[in-house]
Amino acid sequence: MDDVDLLADLDLSQFTDAQRQIIEANLYGQYEDRLGEKIVPLINDEKFAQFEAVIDQGDEEKIELWLDQNVPGYENIAEQVLEELKQEVRTNPAKFLESTEDS
Fold first, then answer.
1. For residues 15 and 92, is the Cβ–Cβ distance under 8 A?
2. Which one in 11, 40, 50, 83 has a CA-CA gap of 20 to 30 Å to 56?
3. Alpha carbon distance 52, 24 (integer Å)
4. Rounded to two decimals, what is the model's pTM?
5. Whole-Å CA distances, 77 to 10, 45, 56
């Protein structure tokens, strides 16, 4: 996912650049976690093993391609998760300044 998309439409002007970077990192981590929670139930064990192998390669383009080809409705799911997170940031952006390890 493009980082520009992650923060698009969010007014974070009250935060410093360093704080915005923390928010972005936490938001991205939450996005990946939540997207995974939605996707895993949609694929069987064999596909999950394939997905883990693709993730281990660390190539974002390959990951996106695999998801597009193997998860029905992936783009819609990803958009829904992103919009939910953006709404949370709009409601309480300071929450995303907290460490993700505490969540």
1. no
2. 83
3. 24
4. 0.80
5. 20, 20, 22
